[in-house]
């Protein structure tokens, strides 16, 4: 049996973009173009006191903590995740994450299906432009199908 699809591929490490997404550093590991649209894989670094506000969207999100401690709230329930812990949030469930510890947190986030990388790049541009404020952040989220929950 022959196929045009290789049995495996090797990708050498490339310098990852350091995207500033409203105070959290996001590195894109594999975007939807790399996964055939299946998912977006990011490595996220959250300093103490940083995180994402309560929101919801169409993608499934899975967070896996590599280092530190990460607080997650989903569907009104809070969990504190430590190194090696993983949580999965279903589509359209209100959720947020934040680092309330005194140490940096690092985690992998997988969004399924892919496509969310455009939001991260646009958020980085907004953060670096000097035009960032709550209204511009909310408008950007809405533009990308992210509903902020108040």
From TrEMBL:
Membrane-crossing residue ranges in chain numbering: none
InterPro entries reported for this sequence: Cupin_2, QDO-like, RmlC-like_jellyroll, RmlC_Cupin_sf
Domain Cupin type-2: from-to ranges: 48-110
SUPFAM superfamilies named among the record's database cross-references: RmlC-like cupins
Signal peptide: none
Gene3D superfamilies: Jelly Rolls
The name this protein goes by in its record: Cupin domain-containing protein
Provenance organism: Luteolibacter rhizosphaerae
High-level lineage: Bacteria, Pseudomonadati, Verrucomicrobiota, Verrucomicrobiia, Verrucomicrobiales
């Amino acid at each position: 049996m022959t196929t045009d699809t290789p049995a495996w591929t090797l990708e050498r490490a490339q310098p990852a973009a350091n995207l500033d997404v409203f105070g959290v550093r996001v590195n894109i590991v594999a975007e939807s173009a790399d996964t055939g649209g299946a998912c977006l894989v990011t490595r996220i670094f959250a300093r103490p006191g940083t995180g994402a506000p309560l929101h919801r969207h169409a993608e499934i999100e899975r967070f896996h903590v590599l280092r530190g401690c990460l607080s997650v709230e989903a569907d009104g329930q809070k969990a504190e995740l430590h190194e090696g812990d993983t949580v999965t949030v279903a589509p359209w469930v209100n959720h947020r994450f934040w680092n309330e510890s005194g140490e940096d947190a690092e985690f992998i986030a997988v969004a399924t299906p892919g496509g969310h990388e455009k939001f991260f790049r646009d958020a980085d541009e907004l953060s670096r432009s000097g035009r960032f404020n709550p209204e511009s952040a909310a408008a950007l989220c809405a533009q990308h199908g992210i509903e902020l929950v108040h």
